[in-house]
Amino acid sequence: MKPVSSMSRPMGRAGPPPAVRADAPGVSLKVGGITPFTATDFPGKLSAVVFVQGCPWRCGYCHNPHLQPRTPHSPVAWAEVAEFLSRRKGLIDAVVFSGGEPTMDPGLEPAIHEVRRLGFQTGLHSGGTHPARLRRVLPLLDWVGLDIKANAAGYERITRVRGSGAPAFESLRAVLESGVNHEIRSTIHPHLHDEDEIRALARHLAGAGVTHYALQVFRPTGCADAQLNSLRFTDYPGPGLVAELERLFPHFILRGG
To answer: Which of 19, 22, 124, 203 is the most exposed place for a label (fewest CB within 10 A)?
Structure first.
């Protein structure tokens, strides 16, 4: 996952914690950075955020495009992260895996196991690119933030990758079936989502059983797309649409706007 608040946005490129071990057996997670402390990336918990390197999609409004490629060597060794987290016991409640796209990395599951052994709750921000891996890790998670970017037919316009809607909606089904606490959210931009599209997506999600939904208005922080950054807009989405969405979901929040 997963641009208008630190709930849905990596909180900067914090430097790596000091290295103290050469390796952590069984874990090869490619870590692009870590935020040592945040109160907003896991609802109601103080947490650290581990940013996993790599994403197969190329969304124009991405706020962290430097994490999209996967480099040959991990920018931050998992051993350093694990040692750092062991020193955070009693200071934070949870560890959130974000990105990039954490479900892209085969090292995600063993990394979550290690975090749980350290005694932390676990959270995940995901765009739903790899639903099979998401299903495997869902029983290990305490909270998930899942991005649903558009209705299935509109996904390619956002991600610039053919067929990307299918895994996203399969991931949605997995999250809803899992019983894990979650938030489903959509980031919107007037170049990419008109109000009819937003309304149709929200109705689809409500019909699928989504109860916690966040609509996030684009902010340019970190975005490298000059065209999306150039547009200045106000009163988007309109108050009538916001009121309609508030009636659709038991828990609805508008971020930005």
So the answer is: 22
